[in-house]
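Can anyone check this?
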Amino acid sequence: MRTKLLFLVTFFLSINALAQSGGMMQTTKDRINFSGLIVPATGVLFGVEGEKGKLIGDNYYDTTFQAGNVRFYGRIGAADSLGGVPLRYDLYTQEVEIRASPTDIRAAKAPTVRYFVMNNRLGGTSLFVNAREYRGASDELVGFLESLTTGKFSLLQRHSIIVKTANFNAALNVGTKDDELVKKREFYVAKGRMVMKFSPSKKAILELMASQEAAIEAYLKEKKPDLKKASGLAQVFEYYNTL
């Protein structure tokens, strides 16, 4: 009898506990479905939101405005050019920025500019010609090609920007939250107005300059120019154009 009574008490207590638990679960479910569960401001389950990602890098050939000249395809007022004006080249938009005053910066879009030349940090000048002035591989390009050398073979350099996007994995806490602007350059060779893409290497140079292969090979052996740098590559082209 005592055992049976104990069993009944335990049974009713269990039923009551289940009913309370079910009621709590139903209440929670109702809040989510109809009004949204209110999240408490305190508790060990929550942390502070992490730092936001940033954009690293700049999108300019040179962030400083440099004195330069611009020649347009159409006329700007009474002339088709501007001389001695502060210029800056945006590699991402392929626009030429012209500073009219400290608070007034105008942007000339690539299709309107035939060429522009501006001072550079090396103490010289840099010439940028619209890709439309050439034929061949340049047909698919929008923007400008920097003229590094001129002659039988002209060496050109294309500047652009690629965006390296953030790859942060919150679950593993690895990677970066920052987007990065990465400057990219590609070389082209022009013979007259015909342009082809060029991947610098000793083999590629000797094939291109096959008519003077012996002289070029001797030059490379003696001078050992850095073919990965524009300055080293330009030296080879300048020498070839004198032969």
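Reply from J.R.: I decoded it. Residues 2-35 form the longest helix (34 residues).
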